[in-house]
TrEMBL record, chain A:
Chain segments annotated as coiled-coil in the UniProt record: 35-62
Record-level GO cellular component terms: plasma membrane
Localization (cell): Cell inner membrane
Upper classification of the organism: Bacteria, Pseudomonadati, Pseudomonadota, Gammaproteobacteria, Oceanospirillales
Protein name: Heme exporter protein D
Oxidoreductase found in the keyword field: no
Job description of the protein: Required for the export of heme to the periplasm for the biogenesis of c-type cytochromes.
Biological process (GO), any one: cytochrome complex assembly
The family this protein is said to belong to: Belongs to the CcmD/CycX/HelD family.
Swiss-Prot/TrEMBL keywords: Cell inner membrane, Cell membrane, Coiled coil, Cytochrome c-type biogenesis, Membrane, Transmembrane, Transmembrane helix, Transport
Record field: transmembrane: 12-33
Gene from which this protein is expressed: ccmD
Membrane topology: Single-pass membrane protein
Amino acid sequence: MGDYLPPDRWEFIWASYAVFIVTFIVMIVIPIVRRKQLKQELKQYYQRKQLLQNDTEQETEKNSKLVE
Amino acid sequence: MAWTWFFRLGSPKWFYQIAARWQPWIWGLTAIGLITGVVWGLWIAPPDYYQGDLQRIMYIHVPAAYLSMFVYVVMAVSSAIGLIWRMKMAFSVAMSCSPIGAAFTFLALVTGALWGKPTWGTYWVFDARLTSELILLFLYFGHMALFNSIHERKTADKAAAILAIVGVVNIPIIHFSVEWWNSLHQSASLSKLEKPAIDSSMLWPLLIMIVSFKLFFVSLLLPYLRNHILWRERDAKWVEEEVKS
């Protein structure tokens, strides 16, 4: 056992740490990007909602005038 | 007093605001822990007698593997809370856990393969530990896919929660696989009941990395959860104000 040489395979160690850093960076970036997308999607959602509400109000107004 | 605090956690608005205040502190602690752990693990901890410097992969592989199981348990417990007490926030926690858990599982599998090649002579074998960990990755993918494939929110919550609870059976299988079956994978180096099998010069950086990975999980969970709350509560007045501000 005295002349046992430990396997110094640093390429595997660096590859592991590289995967670790890349995974962590991706995990940090995903919610930041998603938040921007989500805010954009929600802004459009509120616009559509507002348009629908306006349409309904106009329709109701028209109908009430017709009845009169 | 303690119960008031617990019940307030169930309010999406309150949680959304408090999480924004906690985030910088938790991120700061996580960064300190991770930098200390990586520097200690890569350059200060001694090489192992048998594996040499290759044991340095342990400082990311072991915490990632622990977290892959821990996150699943958090996901299953919050799913159960959601089903039993019909708590919206619990479902949101469960849904925010699955991409994070999948990332830790992926990291554990890849670093394990990179450690396996020079020590076992192969990147992959279909033994009990590796296969059950791979199943865990598929469970996370399945959880996300199931939730996103159902349009009706309540049905999606329930279906994903049931999958999370059923899948928790895989956790003890992963943990005890090295004891129940013959495996290339070594048995646990750390145990709650026994003295650690590794020297303190390697144990300390490992413990720092385990704690830092847990902090990293919390740091990630908060922004994922805040996004999920925004989407889920989109019809609430406060969300509309938040988005338009």
